[in-house]
Amino acid sequence: MSNINRTDLIKQGAIWAFIAVELAFFSIAGKFLSVTDATFMDPENMLLLLKQSAPIGIIALGMTIVMINGNIDLSVGAIFAMSAVILLDSMGWAWMQSLGVWSIPISWGLALLTGVVLGAINGLIVWKTGVDAFIVTLGSMLGYRGLVFMYNGEQPTSHLNWTLVDFAEARFLGLHTATWFLLVVALILWLVMTRTVHGRNAYAIGNNREAAVNAGIRVGPHFLWNFMLIGFLSALSAVVFYSESGSVNPNDGMLYELWAITAVVLGGTKLTGGYGSIISTLGGVIAIQLLRKGLGHIGSDTETVNLVIGLILIAVLFLDRQLNRKGKEELRV
Amino acid sequence: MTDQSPILRLENIVKAFPGVRALDGVSLDLRPGEVHALMGENGAGKSTLMKVLGGLHQPNEGKIYIGEKQVVMDRPQTAKQNGVVFIHQELSLADELSVAENIFLGELPRKSLGRVDWEKLYTDTDAILDRLNVGFNARTRVGDLSIANQQMVEIARALTVDPRAVIFDEPTASLTDSEKVVLFDVIADLQSRGVGVIYISHRMEEIFKITDRISVLRDGSYRGTLNTAETNEEDVTQLMIGRKLDLSRNKVQHEMGDVALEVRNLSCGKLFHDVSFTVRKGEVVGFYGLVGAGRTEIAETIFGLREPSAGKILLDGQEVTINSPQDAIARGISLVPEDRKGQGLVLGMNCRDNMTLPQIGELTSGPFTSDKAEVAIFDKYHDALDIRTPGWRQTVGNLSGGNQQKIVIGKWLSMHPKVLIVDEPTRGIDVGSKSEIHNLIRDLAAQGYAVIVVSSEMPEVLHVSDRIVAMFSGRVMREFTTEEVTENNLVQAISGLSEDRVA
Amino acid sequence: MAEISKAGLSGFLARQGIIVAFAVFMIVFAIANPRFIDIDNISGVIRSSAILGVMALGVTFVVIGGNLDLSVGSMMSFSTIVVLDLHDKIGPALAIPAMFGMTLCLGAFIGFLVGYLKLNSLIVTLGMLSAIHGLTLTYSGGQNMDIADKRGTWFNVFGQGDIIGIPIPILMFALLAAGLGVVLSRTAFGRKVYAVGGNGTAAVFSGIPRARIVFLTYLMSSFCVAMAGLMQASRSLGSQNTVGQGLELEVLAAVILGGASLLGGSGTIFKTVIGVLILGFIQNGLLLMGLAFYAQYVVTWVIIILAVWLDIAAKRGRLLSPIA
Fold this sequence. Notes:
heterotrimer, B: 503 residues, Rossmann fold, 6-stranded mixed β-sheet, 22 strands, C: mainly alpha
């Protein structure tokens, strides 16, 4: 970024401060309340946390770009499930099995292609019909989930490939495969958003769509690209996760859109578009996962996490508004 | 004017939308080094014509020539590539991006892999900013700039190509006088370089000050081009509206009653300080000042939309506390707001429902709203204000600006207020409706209403007011009676030059 | 003249297209399979749509007021679980008002956040979706909730009973729809909801207390949710914690299908009812045609997009979006 002024620093620092508070809280509270003897800040525990952040995290990174654009994608959970079904099912096809190890890249490719195609359908509809992305993806969230169920009924789709499992469980420089995927995606998207014309145009479009149109930026194709990107990332998230688990239920990925959006909003991206940062979203993702693990660590019901995250999301919104108030002179509307 | 061959020529442009012929064979030519005014009432087709020229609309018929070459403006870039650039009325900037990114919006310099060439971007931007002599740099966030500086960014954007023609669409709408001077300097500079300028504005003084020729549109068709030096305001107006307009300052005087509203030492944070004035029944008090002088904020405070930090408001001699518009309405204060579409009307609602909105809670029989009572109110003000609409079911968004404004006025008259505040009564309204609304305001005063008119247009203030309060930077500089006021001392007062400040 | 009648026709389709589509849809399905318009079938469809329908009525108020409510699904789970739990503890006669009270408190909380604190409704209700889900799980300890003595209670009337042959869920849906329809179209409150959703600033400038109106729309929504929870609990007399999960989006789909704009200021109760029925009959019609149950999701998707698309296409006068 070329211009970082003070308010930007506060905004982008807030999520990391929040993470620090969480770490401190759970470490101290854990000493008194923890059900196990393990310390919370244990490096192994933290590495696991990063790995567990990956599935939602990779989607949330894509969601950041879509939301900076001023759009939203509610269908990511369904795309995630559909890609997973294609991934695992395709590995069981007879001709694929005859390929041996080569079936892996092909099934990966098919799964990723599925994500891109489903994303492209969303993008094309948004572009060509002019219907709001919220409605378009609300619809396709239902529709794509329908496709998942039609594919295999209510049965889980399973295929365990040990080569894949080994790959997914491998560690490089201490980090799990999934963590590497998360970090590499974050790095690439960060470069895209801060250094490339496409990224800067994404901000411009979200900031002032009419101005972007007037300046000759082709907004429609731009949207299409970003929906394809988030479709791709949803599929990538599925590929990373299901390579290891090997079995997908047709209901998997439900509510992922809500988790991803929560992470993006916690990271400070504006709902109206035009402002946001990839790195802060990464912070949002980690903060949520930390909360999940931390609450478990201090022996609180795992279900409480929903309650806490919901209230924190609202609190963040409230604080943000208080910070942006102009004081008593403001118009009472 | 030297008679050179035109740099830009529009020939017989026709543009039809479903149900409307927005442009009906319009022709226009622009010579190098001239400032060419394009005038017409709202809806006359100016914007459509410029959108055709800018490649945002495709004409159904007609040709566009740049120099001798015919050009098809199929997309916004085509216009720019041909040296035709636009400075839009509504700022089209991305607040969160830097000045440089905004100036080169849509054409950021690229390196390999789609990367932005920041170095080139900043060098190019600085070169342009130097030419404009502005006090900000390429890396400043646009959201941090003042409106006038944002306008300069828009102008800088036009200079990224070596333009042959620059189109200014209502550029002075939100500028202060000193900022206007800077703008006119830029225009003069363009002119001296042989660039042609199309200047769209409603403001006659500006038109006569800086333009060489004036072309007029009415109802989508071309009505003629005049040499500015050989014409006057009346002729242009006649061409625009098809008839003569009475702009005389003579108004019928009438009896005034007691003081209806008194404001004592009212302040609201940094917006305005220590403001005192009175309005009598049957009197029109005009508030005149520059944009940002605090006039609208005073009106909003009296109407309960802002919390005063000090001071009193008295109605009929009684001190009142007003914490919300509901309070204000209950005490007989009405506000016709500045932003008609944003604050005055629910555009998707029909005429009647808009008009009865403030009192819908009272227009009931039993628990239900009374159709009869509502229609009765609509009919009354429909007739009284001569609102032209096919019927009350018409959606307000489909009416013309003038009729929309009358709906808002009707809405507040139907509340039978003691004090009626009208903020920018004729902004964005065509000339014909303007004078109707001026007459209406005078009539209301004659009927005994206490009226406050807030306006940025001097002729309007002079025309309708019995007394004028001049404001500058949140303070009342001076009060004028009709006898005292001259254009000169009024301008001095609102520029902060007046010595004899009346507290 | 031809142009006028054409404009009139497209205007009519824009306004009433959903009703025309509904009629065409019913006729086609009726021809394809006469059982479709069998009275028992129709009654069955309406009955199974009633819970969704009751929730959609409340959300219609919220959406017309210019906001969203994504919390209704998890709120419905909450009220179902609570009323089932209290049924055995304090008896149905007290359990029902207690559950209504608690659900209305949730609605009031959301209304306070969105109305008085002016927070973004999408995020607030998204947060509340999660928070209320957590609340329900904490309340139930994650267990399913069942009424101990399923035969010895009159509590099942709201979900299973009937009056002169009309199932009570249908009756409740119909009465509530009629009542709320009148509130929306014939009262000052209804008009204010339209004004606040159509242009909130203009509403405030007209002396309408926007915060209070928004607050009340959420209160109405939570009332409808409590009603739906009651019907759900009474129908099954036992429930999972997640009984309402995902319903928020189906509800929203019904409201949008009915033609309410997410920007606020437009929509009617009648059209929402049509939207609910379309969703119900699609599901039923596809089943009768022998299609997989889940095909309805895909069809619903296509129908929602088409409905909204044609609506805005009629308004802008061209089919495809002008954005390049």
